[in-house]
TrEMBL record:
Native source organism of the sequence: Nonomuraea guangzhouensis
Domain YcaO: 79-383
InterPro entries documented for this protein: YcaO-like_dom (IPR003776)
Protein name stated in the entry: YcaO-like family protein
PROSITE patterns from the UniProt entry: YCAO
Length: 383
């Protein structure tokens, strides 16, 4: 364990010296402690109801929704998990982190990129850009304070790459950056939040790269992993007569990234879920549970961001036998996990990933936004 002399010592807490291993995920605290934190924050961020929507579908993988009627983004946040308790927490924490992204953020400075280039440590053009974009070296931008995840050095990040709101803007708002929730995460600790944000950034980069290249990934057999958690998820799908196809999507970080696709005769459109983690079991469990969550989002009809899937999108089930999945595992502590993933991301992309702390003391939940210059993301991975 590298906690004491870690380059991330400015970010770490005592809880990050170990981890709580849960079905399909790793956390810094037990679910009961997370529930207390989430319950305290719920009223302050406008959560009025948390609903169990699992039984709206025949699959049975736990899925919950947290409702925020006054949201400036999505009024309904979804959460999934191997257990109902974890799914409830997932929905609540997603709602909490979205609230943080919606809040007004005061820039530390306003300047064109050419005037702050010495404070960046990366090329601003390597951030996800709006298609099209008017970004140029002389365009005045609002900047927020961030820190490099490789050495803790201070840097600047464009505000439009950090905050997120669906409220209609007034005045002149030229298209510059692709605004999304990519890299937005909450956690029991700041390190846990950063780790999960990085996993999301890496996952979406891998999926975006694959989509751009027309690469479907490598068909894999979940049963070869030898994971009781994954085996139970696959059996759950089979009992519901849902076809599950899993593909491994390559990432320049070398982390396990999976795409799970589900479809059935009773509900023809195909739904996808993605997952990334140091541990193959956790990455695969996330992909499968996210696919079930995506389907329930459409069945419930409660989300603000639904798209017309079209009946033609149902894929033909493959008869091929998938390849075996290497049983890769994570470390024994969150700090070791985080240092490993940060190092991989810095090597894979053009510069060190950067974290912006969005935590608000009055809410009491660690929330961060991680941006990784050089990583890719497109709107398609959000659908």
């Amino acid at each position: 364990m590298r906690t004491d002399n870690s380059s991330l010592s400015w970010l770490l807490s005592e809880s990050d010296r170990s981890k709580v291993r849960l079905p399909g995920t790793d956390r810094a605290h037990h679910p009961a402690a997370t529930r207390e934190m989430a319950d305290r924050a719920a009223r302050m961020v406008g959560i009025t109801r948390v609903a169990d929507i699992t039984r709206l579908d025949t699959i049975g993988i736990p899925t919950f929704q947290a409702i925020r009627p006054t949201a400036r983004t999505l009024a309904v946040s979804q959460g999934k998990g191997v257990t109902a308790e974890l799914a409830r927490l997932s929905a609540m924490m997603e709602a909490v982190e979205l609230w943080h992204a919606e809040q007004p953020m005061t820039p530390v400075t306003t300047a064109p990129p050419r005037d702050v280039i010495g404070h960046l440590g990366y090329d601003v053009r390597d951030l996800p850009l709006s298609p099209p974009t008017v970004l140029h070296d002389g365009l005045p931008l609002d900047w927020l304070a961030g820190r490099s995840l490789t050495d803790g050095s201070k840097t600047l990040v464009p505000k439009d790459s950090v905050g997120f709101s669906l409220v209609r803007k007034t005045g002149w708002n030229p298209p510059v950056f692709f605004e999304s929730t990519n890299g937005l995460a909450s956690g029991n600790t700041a390190a846990e939040a950063v780790l999960h944000a990085l996993y999301e950034v890496i996952e979406r980069d891998a999926v975006t790269t694959a989509m751009a290249a027309g690469d479907k990934g490598i068909l894999v057999d979940p049963g070869t992993l030898g994971s009781p958690v994954v085996d139970e998820l696959c059996e759950t799908m089979a009992r519901a007569r849902v076809c599950l196809e899993v593909r491994s999507v390559p990432s320049p970080t070398g982390l396990p990234c999976f795409l799970a696709r589900i479809s059935c005769d009773d509900h023809p459109p195909a739904f996808m879920g993605f997952g990334c983690h140091l541990g193959a079991e956790t990455a695969l469990a996330r992909a499968v549970t996210e696919a079930a969550q995506a389907r329930l989002g459409y069945i419930s009809g409660a989300r603000d961001d639904l798209h017309d899937l079209g009946m033609r999108r149902r894929p033909a089930p493959t008869a091929d036998t998938g390849e075996a999945i290497p049983r890769l595992t994570a470390h024994q502590s969150l700090v070791d996990d985080l240092e490993d993933v940060v190092e991989r991301a810095a090597l894979a992309f053009s510069a060190a990933p950067v974290v912006i702390d969005l935590t608000r003391d009055e809410i009491g939940v660690p929330v961060v936004r991680v941006v990784a210059p050089g990583s890719r993301v497109t709107p398609e991975v959000f659908r």
